[in-house]
Amino acid sequence: MKRLMPAxxxxxxxxxxxxxxxxxxxxxxxxxPIYFNSYLxxxxxxxxxxxxxxxxxxxxxxxxxxxxxSPIFGTLSDFKGYKRPIFLFFAVMGVIGCAxxxxxxxxxxxxxxxxxxxxxYSGSLVFYDAMLVDMASPARTDIVSSKGYAWGYIxxxxxxIISILIVNFSPLETAVSMPIATVIxxxxxxxxxxxxxxxxxxxxxxxxxxxAIRDNFRRLFSVFSKKxxxxxKKGIILFLIAFFLYIDGVYTVIDMATTFGTAIFxxxxxxxxxxxxxxxxTQFIAFPAxxxxxxxxxxxxxxxxxxxxxxxxxxxxxxxxxxxxxxQFWMLAVAVGLFQGGVQALSRSYFAKxxxxxxxxxxxxxxxxxxxxxxxxxxxxxxxxxxxxxxANLAAIPIACLLAAGVAVFLIAARINRPYLAxxxxxxxxxxxxxxxxxxxxxxxxxxxxQQS
Length: 453
Fold this sequence. Notes:
Elements: H1 6-43, H2 48-77, H3 83-100, H4 107-130, H5 132-135, H6 141-169, H7 174-191, H8 194-199, H9 212-221, H10 233-264, H11 271-296, H12 302-321, H13 326-354, H14 360-389, H15 397-432, H16 447-452
């Protein structure tokens, strides 16, 4: 077997964490809503539509908490030597919570544990994303980011399939099978965290100060002020707004897919199994689709690929409004698989290119505010509409509206950022003595525009 070069080994250490944490992503998007709706809530006499709205409200609470905590801890992680221990704390607490979710408990206690666990899980992803600037060169951020999502999709299927076999097809009672399934996913998660912890080195950082906590808030509150030294502030802000609008569709579909399904389709004894298998199909399709998106970024402008993905997601949301048959859910699962990984991975790598790498923790923390804010808005509006109208189909309308607005703002942001990316490519070419490999940075813009940026 060909031995990995040190740079590739470093990249794979980062990619493998996506394989680990994605097991939890699939668990809470495909199994946990059904477990909550059909077991915990049903035993308490709560209807499926009401239970679905409670699940949406809990998800909305998570997004608020993460939106507050992410920029604070993200900015702190930019100080030299801080990123690794903060990430490890959030990841380990998430793993513990994942194992605890299978313990039989009242529905309200379960939702509280779920909220706490997902806060730590989501927080770990902020620092993980910020590590990308340390783990891959600028020319490889697109493909490495895409491989992270791709291998995360396919890798998460292993513990997921084992969990399905234990929960749905074993003679064990739910009170026994669910704890076994959650522990398996927790062990999988922590196992793939170890390589990143062994190999990660924080190469981009802000020098540590005697008053780190005070300086942390000072840096955070002044990040976009007139005195801030961050270049390309206008382009970053516009992308954040666009991201807020379009990533709503991605996160809301991930968080609420099975909740929509259980509310729309009558339970014929086979419904829940079909919903879970359809989402499993999404994972298998997303693996090659994300890889292809990453490779296309070497030949096609990354802005165009992101735009295509957003438009496709808008169509998916509109399709969900008219979805009444289970076979339509399978079609939706295929469409989501084609574009889900690409829009997430390329958005992450695109943002890594337009920000200064030594402030990646702070700015990815702010990115998470916009991403989680969109998820909060989407899940909240969807839950309100579902609860007031009794229709899960109508709950997809606000998702489609936000995605359409995201398309418009992203077009403006891409035009503002293009001169800055060209300038960076020109500087990289002068430094390395060779052309930049990212077509998004091709120097088809005049020097006057570059200077103006």
